[in-house]
Structure formats: structure tokens, C-alpha cells
Batch of 4 targets.
Target 1
Amino acid sequence: MKESVLNFDCEGERLIGILAEPANTAPAEVGVVIVVGGPQYRVGSHRQFTLLARHLANHGVAALRFDYRSMGDSPGETRDFLSVDADIAAAIAALLAARPALKRVVLWGLCDAASASLLYLESTGDPRVAGVALLNPWARSAATLAQTHVKHYYWRRLREKGFWLKLLRGGVGLTALRTLGGNLRLARGAGKAKTDSRSFQDRMAAGLRAFNGPVLLILSGDDYTAREFVGFARSSAAWQGLLVRPTLDLHDMPTADHTFSAIQDQDSQCRICLDWLRTRCLAI
């Protein structure tokens, strides 16, 4: 494979991207745009995005990882995943221009980049998008965070003998119990927002529901963000039925953390992505 720098315009700002592509063979007709999420730039935690792009390119799939405005080496005003539609559109155009043989692209995103990809689909319905790969999507609100803590932390703690011993000895005070009570009240409100509220979670659902292409969903077992997303999707009216659609392939990775930091988990998610691309997207 080979790598090259792409500089491309987005509403008057120059964005920086790295294109990884096969060196000696023609790439597949579908390329991948790796959308950066959270406080990351185009390399990713422990070089995650770099390793993924190179893995895809070594197997015939061109991949572009880029910094959206205000991130990494791309200038611009500070923004978050709620306002990167123009950046994603510019990256798609840049990849297709750099590789004219490509017909369409797949959007790949981790955490709030997965959320941004669905928001992009909801906003644009871009026909250039052949598929989306979503890893541990971000769906956080105060209620969903409280619900996740109650389900996956507090109930476990309440079953531990050590917790009650600390309570009796004064090691755990009323503050901890009050926190639990507050989280229980917040958790009751998770997923109860009206579907027309235009919350970003509802917009994500609308983007996914309107998209007819293949979707890959990878969820880490050792990750509260993934658990929070699943809990919200199961309780929200807007998300009902979306995770069991025939166009969606769900992969659970029980040992993986949020960023797949263990090399075996990183390798596994790369293989899952490539296999999904080959079987679900490259024939499009």
C-alpha cells in the first residue's frame, strides 16, 4: 500500500487528510472515509485509525482518514460531532476525486464519529454513501448515563459484601446512597423523550431508518458507552426495531474496550470491517 497527503477545501478552510490505497492493484469500487470522533485526530488512539486504513489498503480498499475543522492539523473554529456535515461531505468528495475509479464510499466512525455519520445521513441522504460502519456509538444524555450506572455499576456494588461492610464502618456514607437515588430518578427518564424532539439521538435513529444500505455495528463488551447506547436503543421509541433490521450486521466483542486498545481486539475489528465490506458493500 501507499499513503499520500490530501489537502481539500471545506467552506473556505483547508482540511488535512491521509489517503491509504493499494500500491500495485486497482482498489475496490467502494472506498472508506474514516470519520474522527472525540478529542482525537486522524491517527486515533494508539494509532487505531492509521492501522485500520493501512489494513484496508493492504487488502485492496482505499481509505481516507482526515481532520475535520478545528481538529488536528485542520484550522477552523472549534466544533463537535453535531456540526461536521460539511466536513464529511468535503472528505467524501476529496476521496472520490483522488480515486476516480471509486463509485461510492462507506463511512466508518467510532463513538461520536459513528453518531456524526448517522446525523450526516439524516441531514443529507447522500447517495454517495454505500454503507456505514458504527463502533460504540455515542448516545449519551444525563438520563442514559444514570441508567447505565444503575444497571452496570450500582447493582453490582449492592451485591458485594464489601460495600455493606464499608457502609456499616462509615467508609461509604449517605452521599453514595443519595447519588444512587439521584441516578435512579434520572434513569427513569431515559428513552422517554418524544420522537419529534429533534434530539441528536432521535436524529441518529431517523438517519439509520431512512438508510437502505448495509450497516455494520460493533459493540465492545468492556465499554460503558456501548452499554449506554444499547440501553437507550432498547428503551427509545425512535430506535425500536432498528438494531434487528436485515441490513444491519451486529458484532459483539466481549473483551474489547472502547477504543479496542488490545492488539488482538484491534486486529479483530479490522478483520470484521474488511469481511463486512467484501460481503455487504463491494458488490454494490
Target 2
Amino acid sequence: MIELTPKESLAKNGFAGPFPRFASEETITQLRDFFATLLDDAPQHPLYGRYSVRDWHLVDETVRSVMSAPELVQTVQEVTGADSLILWRSKLFEKFPGDGPIDWHQEYGYFDGEEIGGHRPALFPMNPAGEWDWTVWMALTDVSEDDGVMEFVKGSQRSSYPKRMVKLVESGAYVNPRNRISTKEELLTRAANNSVLLDIDTRNVFRDVDPDKYTLDELFDRLDAFCDDLLAVVTEPFEVKPGDTQTMPMKAGEYVIFSERCMHRSRGSLPDATTRLALNARYTLGDTWVYPQRVTGDTYDGSNLDISGHRCVPVAGTRFNPNNVYLG
């Protein structure tokens, strides 16, 4: 069998990798510790005014230096063929022991937050028919088949799969907090600072609740009732034949490049697995208009974040959309 080059693999399969670690072990450890502390402490994001695991590359120099490193950017350019690139978004993806899978999904639109019911496009490409947005998924911990490995459907980037709206708790975007939170105090604190459900505003769920009158399970029931009114997008079931998919075990610091149009998921984590941490960085062509809604004074994205302070980071080339706001 003829082995594909990374560029050929991206074009044919929708993904390429894993690529070897380019950052030092010390740097990867520093990133892992930074994000582990972020999960533990749930601080307010300096740009967004509330807790978020998004876009810490705009705040932390180490995160930014890794995701804009020449070694990484050159590889992205070689694989995608892009002349100019913008780093426009990053996000931590954690999976704790016992966490279920994130179901099959693809981004065939414009990052409008539809996975949690949002409808505000984040990107406006100049040529939407072509490829214009790619993801680098970098492992910060070793990732085996047992602790949330990434899986891709080969060639799926060439088709937009049917989707439907369901209750949030029935979607892959929902991670049950009962698996992560063990005290009433932690649940109330995380709900108040929006760190209990990813990208969901939960500040008012327990505002008028006397926690002494409820057990932890009863408080979770109240959160469940709140979630019953929220909708999200799921992919309709589709047939996957043997050999159609590929998993991507990785060592810490290794990474995969894939088209967001490629159908992908993360498998569930076994109860005795280790916590998996990964950093996801998204790159788009330099002429893409990022957060076009800001021109109308709308400063919220599809994930309910105030993006008035968001900046794009040019990482390659010279042709950039003048409507964007760039990091100085």
C-alpha cells in the first residue's frame, strides 16, 4: 500500500498526523500544569469577564508561542497549502476518567455555536466553497485508546452530514457534571462562575436557592431542569463500515491537523483512565473575516462570550482581512 504524504492525507482523508512533538518536554509540562490549574481554580477569563477555557493564547504568552511556533505554522502551511494564516481561536479539551464520548460532529458552517443552540457565525470566508479553516489538536497528556482518543471518518470532509436539534443533555456537547462535582459548594460556585457546563450561562440557576434545604442530587436535578429548555445540534446516525475510521493515539506534545469538515469525535474514557488534556487551535485563511457581527455592534458570539476584546493573531503570510482586529 502506498503511504500518503501529510498533504495527501489531509486532502483524501480530512486529517493528517500525528506529527512529532516540536516543543520541549518542559514547555508541554508547563502548558499541562497551566491548564490543569485553570480547571481546578476556574478563574475569570481576563478578556471575557467569566470563566472560559477558550482563547488563553490571547492572554498567556507560552500558549501563544506554542500555537504560533514557526515549526508548527510551517507544517500547517505545507499540509494545507495556505499562504496566509490567522490563529483565531483556541480551546482546552479535557476528559476526566469515566467521561463519556463526544459524539460524531463536523463544522460545515461558520462556527456559529449551533452545537449549543447558538446562531452567530464567527467566520466569513472570502471563498466558502474551498477549504479555509483547519484545526490543530495537540495532546498535553499521553492519549491512549482508553482515555478519550480522537477518531476520524476518512473522507467525510467532502459531505455535509444531516443534523437535527435535540435537548442539550442528549447531545455530544453535554458533559454530565455529576461525574466531576462531588460537593454542593463546588456545584454552586461553578454554576455562579459559568464553569459547570461548557459555554452555557448558568449564573442564575441557583440564585434564589437555599442550598441547606437541598441535597446535592436535588441541586443537580434543578440543573437538569434548566438544561431541559436548551437545545443543541446532533448528527443523524450514519453507517460506519470497518476501516472507515481511524483513531489517533498520541504522546504528549504530538498533534493532528484536520479539516473541521471532517467528521470526528472523542471516544469515552474508562473509569480507571488518566485525565486527558488537549489544546485545540483553529487557523483560517488570512483573508477570512473573523467575528463579522462586531461591525453591527453585536459583541457576543454563539457561545455567549463577549468577544469585544478578541484579537486575531497573524501567523503566516502578509494578506490579511483589514476588517479584523489583530493582536498588537
Target 3
Amino acid sequence: MIDDDLRASRLTADKRPELQISFEFFPPKTDAMEEKFWESIGKLAPLKPRFVSVTYGAGGSTRERTLRMVRHITSDTGVPAAAHLTCVGATRDEIDEVVRGFAEVGVKSIVALRGDPPEGIGKPFSPHPQGYQNAADLVAGIRKLGDFDISVAAYPEKHPQSGSWDEDIDNLKRKIDAGANRAITQMFFRNSDYLRFVDRARKAGVKAPIVPGIQPIHSFKQISGFAARCGASIPDWLAERFEGLENDPDTHALVAAAVAAEQVTELLDEGVTEFHFYTLNRSNLVLALARLLGRRPD
């Protein structure tokens, strides 16, 4: 029997460990999507996240929208905004110009990623001849341009293009050693994968925080398709929970909430105190998960 007094998820506010949370959004493509975007930001901002990040398309395809979103988040909500930045399809000078643009609008946090090639996830990556060669190179370049808070990516199930675990962890260490403040993981659904990954990284000398990236399942079909493309696995038990719910959105939503709640409370009980949520520009499930973690609107 598990003693509830030893579980962080069962502690009251005065005894609960201090938590850090952050949220990820993508730039909306239409006026209706933008309205939903700002509605979700408005609901999550009172939770006082460490930052709200906005993704950045390959080759800068959403650069202007990303810049506009992070500028308004910073100025209108008071919540720190983090802009995603990739190495794909741009020279060093072009990327440096983007970084300076972020600084000019008050953005002090950057999520630095190698990025996926325009041909799609899983295709060979070829750096621009005059560009940053990889994520570690990009981190070092950003660090030279200013005092930014820099996050990088980590892969609990190993990056699909890593030849071995040693290669994967070495790559993470290079990014941290180049000046990154933390790593944020790709989505995962087996907490044991994340915990083993953290253990591997610590044994390799990585001391920076490794923040679990949590993906609430608003649509199992959508998430499982994306997982297949990016190398994240869907456990059989998870697929079974959503089986037959394609035309039952109410039950699907309840199962999704239960799955996400189970994941975050287990991680909290394992001593995890930092969480990054992939919102898909929605707030309802993330608000509930924040409450389970003990975070209340200010």
C-alpha cells in the first residue's frame, strides 16, 4: 500500500513542493484560430507560467506570425514569452537577425531547435552552408548575442536519427554545455521512458533540468499519427483505452483527462517539479492538469 503522506500529489498547498510550469502554442493561421489562441492564453496566463512558447515553422515559414504572437504575449499579458527558433534553411546572419528582433520586443526566452528538414520528419538533415550546423551550434550563437534563457529538446525514446543512446545523450550534453538552461522533452506516454532517460543523462554529467513535455490527448487519432512520424510510441494499453471512441467525443474527453491526470500525478510523486504542456492552442485540459499539480490562478 502506498502511504499518501509520502506522495507529493496528496500534499496540501502548504506542504507541496514549488512547481514550475510552461505552455506551448503554435501560431494561428486564421482569424477564428487566432481568437481561440488568445482565449486560451487569457485562461492560462493567471497560472503564472515560467513562459508561454510559440513554435516556429521550418525555414522561418511562420517567422512573422511567431514574432507577432510573442510580442503581444509579452506586452499584453505580462507573461514571459519564449520564441522557438530553428537552424533550417537560413544563414547565421539571418538567424542572428531574428534573435535580435526577439530581443527588441522584449523576448528573453528562446527554444532552440535544430528543426526538421522541409521534406519532413525523418528525412536527412542538411544544414545551410552558411547556417548553424546543429542545435548546439545554434545555442552557442544565441548565447553570444545576449543573456537569453534557452531551452532545448530532449527525446525520452531517443531521437529517431540517433544511432545509439550514447550518441543521443552526447548530443544533449553538447547543447547544455553550449549554454542551454534546460531541456524539454518530446511527448511521451510511458513515464518509465522519461525516468530512464533522466537517469542516463545524469550519469553522463548532464545537470540541467530535464522538463517532461506533456501532451494531453485531445484527439487520439491526431496524436497517434504525429507520434508515428516523430518517433514517440503509443503503448498498447493507451491505444486500448481509446479504442472505439472515434464517434464518442464526450467519453474520449473523459478518458483523455484521466490519462493525462495519471501521467502528471505519477511524475509528481516521482519528484518531478517542472512540467511543459503542449496545449495545441487549447486550455481546458491543461487548466485541469495545473489544478491537479496544485497551481491555482493568481
Target 4
Amino acid sequence: MCIQGPVGRGSHNDIIDVMVVQNLLNMNLGRYAGVQPPAQLQPDGRIGLKTIDAIQQFETRIMGLPESDGIIVPGDATLKALIAGLPPGYVEEKLAIVMPQATASRIDLYYQPLLTAMPKYGITSELQIAHFLAQLAHESGSFLYPEELASGDAYEGRNDLGNKQPGDGRRFKGRGLIQLTGRANYTRYSQASGQDFLAHPERIANEPLLAVDVACWFWADKRIGAMADRDDVKAVTKAINGQADGPNTHLKARLEFLFRAKALIGI
């Protein structure tokens, strides 16, 4: 489901759920042909009279209901009608529904690189796209962090990461939308891509195409696509995070991204 709880008048109105509904309502404004549509909403996650009015107008003017209670419930006819009104396929606007806290500028920054890199690495099935976007959304904080916030000192001297030279921990800290970490992994990606990221590892975080490409390469290299095609979210999470479940995996958050991605793709 795109939302986890009811949104509208007198509802709990979880901030993420409200943002999703606000984005969906905005993306359906083009359906008000020949009549004045409701005002475009600011997707801020706060319920108010404008959002409730937009729900009511959609239900009565677009869906043709005789009246509206101003509430949308997970799985109800209104939510299905809002999703049905979206453009088909994998389009940029839908990323705002999958990761409602992502800014428009960050979505715009990474959308075209995603279009380029995903087919290159065979991320083409509906389930793979849904799982990949969900994991990407969680790992990058909705496209906000192409480089991990920690200094990288914790990786110093980690032989399992190939960090054998002084300063390797910081030099080869996590970068990319699924974070590449350690000298050994930077070496493997350099060999696979034909570019030298040992001399300039910061490029992976600073260049949007590389930040996406390395995530797609990691996905293909670890053969995660087969796990996604089985719809095995725990196996996908373990391949990326190192654990299938537990407090450090934030599995609930990953699942919420996945539910939204699946709903928009239609699976």
C-alpha cells in the first residue's frame, strides 16, 4: 500500500502518509479537464483544510461520488483511483511517492542516471525495480546522502575491506547510493568500470551518474536481482546490509519504501 494509515479529517495522519497523498493529489490535477482544479498542495505532511478540500473535490468531481467524508484509507477506492490516474511506467514524478521526503531537486539529480544505469545492469523486471528503488531510498536517506556521514575511521585497518594502508578508512569510506566501502571494493569497481577510483574516490559521491552506477554495479555483482525477483526482501537486505533482520537493518522502513514502489509499479 502507498499509505499505512488513514489520511484526512479526524485521522491519525502520519506525516509520510499525508505527504504521499498530497503528492498523489497534485499528480492528478490534470484530470480536472474544463473545470477549475483545487489548488496545488505543498507536500509538507501536514493535514489542513486545503488537503481535505482536495480529497473531497477528487472524490466528488473526478470519481463522481455523491459526497465525500474527506478521508482516504489504505486500499480504498479513492487511493486506487489516485494511483490509476498516474502516468504509466517508471516516470520521474513517481519517485516523489516512493520517497516522499526526497526534494524535487534531488529526484531530478538522480532520475536520468537511474534511467541510464538500471537497464545497463539488467535491473528491468518490475520486482527488481521496486526492490532496488526501495533499498536505494533507505540507504541514501531518500537521495540525500551519496556519502556516509561518519568519518570512516571505523574502517581503518579492516583487512576484510582491504584497508591495509594508513588512512584507507577515511579515504575509502562509504560512497554511492548503495555505499561502496573499503579499498578492495573500490579496486573491484575501478577494474569493472575501467576508471581509477583509488586516486579519486570522492568522485563516486560527487558525480550523480557514478553514485547510481556503483549502486547498480553492486546489485549486479552480488546477484541481488534473483533475490528481488523472488520477492525476498530479507535476502535483499542481507546482501546489502549484511543482516537480514534486526535493529540495524531498519527492515520496517525498507518495507514501507517497497510497499510504495510496488503500488506505483502495479504489483
